[in-house]
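Recall that a protein's primary structure is simply its ordered list of amino acids. Everything else, from secondary elements to tertiary packing, is in principle encoded there. The following example makes that idea concrete.
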Amino acid sequence: MRLNNEDLLRLRNLKQEVLEIPEWNGEVVVRELSISEAATYRQMISENKPLADVIKYACCCTLLEPSMTMDEDLSNVSQSYAQGLERIFNNIPLIGKTKEEREDFIKKQSEISKTPKEELTKEEEEKK
């Protein structure tokens, strides 16, 4: 199939969706990570940065409405706020995927989590 300019524009733009956050009794608008944001995220993981910092970075990048800033202090937040951020963080890999793609991703993740650590590739270990 021959692509046209509209096809390229659709591929170029970051996918967005509305995500329900039951812990917050509402919905937020999120987007997928850009290439450079995903690279920074992977670097943070490989450098063993604190998980709270990784979650804060990823949520700041992906949360569009309402927005979040990097200077937010996550050390003194309510349990429901932290759970909401965790829900957003866990859904980042699923943004813009179809139902079938989501099911396939979840299936692969569950297989990775069942694999003994010594048999995992470095990339699979980071995903786990």
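Residues 99-114 form the longest helix (16 residues). The chain has a mean pLDDT of 87.
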